[in-house]
Amino acid sequence: MHEMSIALAVVEQVESAARPTGATTVNSVRLQVGELAGVVPDALAFSFELACAGTVLEGAELVTEPVPARARCGPCADTWPVGMPPQLSCPGCGGATAELLTGRELQIVSVCWNDAPVHVPMHKER
After folding, report:
1. pLDDT tops 70 at residue 122
2. Model's pTM, two decimal places?
């Protein structure tokens, strides 16, 4: 299951960004997942939960945004939803020179975390 390796990579990247800021907890991670990325969302969510255990991400919500696959025909410039299984020949002219525009995404879009409270010295501490 490659979803575990994806989840571990996401946790590693988020931790490396969050720790230097003093983040105490990560609340959520938002990922774009393309229709053709070969990722099973339920398996990724399960793996993410396991990968977060014992890290600053423990308990974080994984939000996945599906990205539909779309293609464009070079000769006639028609665009269409590729679907699953992928239809890569142009429905307009029948051409086989499709360019995949979207659908392979697998990227972190945003992360929401809580920073460590900043200590403000009281009058007596100054």
Report:
1. no
2. 0.81
